[in-house]
Amino acid sequence: MVIVMIVTVSVSGVVFPSPSPEEKDAGYWERLMRQEVKEALNIRQNHGVAKNIILFIGDGMGVTVNTAGRILKGQKAGRSGEEGYLAWERFPNSALLKTYLLDRQVADSAGSATAYLCGVKANYETLGVTGRVRTDDCYSSRQGANRVDSILKWAQDAGKDTGLVTTTQVTHATPAGLYAKTAQRKWMCDTLAKKEGGGKCKDIARQLVEDSPGKDMKVVLGGGRQMMGAPLEPSYTSCRRGDGRNLVEEWRQEKERQGEMTTYVTNTGELLNIDVNTTDNLIGLFAENTLPYHLDREEGSQGTPSLLQMTQAALAILSKGPRGFFLMVEAGHVDKGLHQNKAVKALEEVVQLDEAVSMALTTLNLEDTLILVTADHSHSLTLNGYPPRGNDIFGVSNLKDVTDELPHSTLMFSMGQGYNYTWNGTKVVRRNLTGVDTTHKEFQFPAAIPTTTWGPAHGGEDVSVHATGPMSHLFHRVHEQAYVAHVMAYSACLGPYLHDCPRPVTTPPPSPPSSPPTHHNNNHNINHTFSNQSVLEEQHSNQHNVTDHSAGGRGDTLNFTEDESHQTDDNIL
């Protein structure tokens, strides 16, 4: 059990200790850095052709969010956290991506999805169309010359099985970037399309079920039952269909007319009990709208599956295809929590993405699988104020140079709902955090400018992309975000590179993700062969209880696996 302390500059101890007391000695750093130099010198490029591609998206997971998520991961294991790594941070190749849109300095999830999935820059709130289509321009979005194909279509044209996993609605901006062509991301159902002027344009849910490449996916897992006309809670009215159609049933019937066995599931128990060997297509809708946050979800059989469980199920189905697969997995609630300034919830979603990526690394053969981890855009989160090493990432500090002499949180936002300032007749006064439980999952961290729930809270700085597998070395500097789609296509010889993906005559052996420094050993077998029969079973049975940042503060526990326990001498990739 971890004892929680509020750290100030006058306190000599820290909440979470470093796992390496010897780090105070120069020899420690020389050994560590020599090891890292050696690893860099031994990197070998993989020039093979990718059979499989997995694209992991942390929605809104900018560099600061990534850093805070790394610290949280370590602190959940009882360590200071700064010295650790998220799974993708050990990949051999990484770069930065420019996320601006053609008409915005700061991107939304739709325009950015068009870039990294279709390979072209586009405008705010548009999906699958060129920059010739402006927001809400239904007419222009229907013109063939203005429509572009995505990596999903290119993969299907090559005979690969395809799928998506998301914690948002399956019709939300990021997943819709795979299949939709629309001038407005909000047109998820027919009633919203008609209300907002897109009545002559097909809504996103219909495009998923009626049009290629959406209708040809093998796996679709996420939320959005109401948009699809299959609500289990009729009173919910986020985006109710006005045409009375049940698109899930129509999708299932069409698949069966093609002679394919289709399974539809709505909770965790049903998902974990699918017959992988007899299921050709899997659709799972686990909420009327978006899925609950991980810290809010019901974990029983009647509850909502985790991102890890959905990803395991998707890989079980898609791995059966002889020509490989393309899968996109989105941790969508990173963005949702940051919009609400609820950093505890948002950063837990980063940790959940880490678990899903780690599972994929232990499951798939990286000699023929390209794995990418990136974000669509950043957020306005800051990590600041010189807090002591190991200070609770959700904690506060008292610094003498803060002129109002009030404690401040390490995490803050430039914009959002956490705005809490008053005027005392003489000066502006911010909220006093003394005695406030800033580790509570519902706590809204301070923001400088007030916004609505989904206001302009995104960040416009570059986001990172991390890559391992065939042709992952093509990520090597600052790139346009549209470059991601082209690297994926080139790695697997798809779409525009179907007949234009030359390789060196001699292909050297590839380099897997590197092991962390000596105090963090790599326990993953990256060449493990996927088992269709056992994939839906809990793959990590050895569990540890460690501190969780959930309601009620530090007293609750969260089960972690043997590989995730992060004791002094082990760490994940």
TrEMBL record:
InterPro entries (UniProt xref): Alkaline_phosphatase, Alkaline_phosphatase_AS, Alkaline_phosphatase_core_sf
The protein's Enzyme Commission number: 3.1.3.1
Membrane topology, record value: Lipid-anchor; GPI-anchor
Chain intervals with Pro residues compositional bias: 505-516
Residues annotated for Zn(2+) binding in this entry: D59, D335, H339, D376, H377, H458
Keywords assigned by UniProt, alphabetized: Cell membrane, Glycoprotein, GPI-anchor, Hydrolase, Lipoprotein, Magnesium, Membrane, Metal-binding, Phosphoprotein, Signal, Zinc
Pfam families: Alk_phosphatase (PF00245)
Biased composition, class Low complexity, residue ranges: 517-532
Major location category of this protein: membrane
Molecular function in Gene Ontology: alkaline phosphatase activity; metal ion binding
Record note on cofactor: Binds 2 Zn(2+) ions.
UniProt-annotated location(s): Cell membrane
Protein name: Alkaline phosphatase
Taxonomic source organism: Petrolisthes manimaculis
Lineage: Eukaryota, Metazoa, Ecdysozoa, Arthropoda, Crustacea
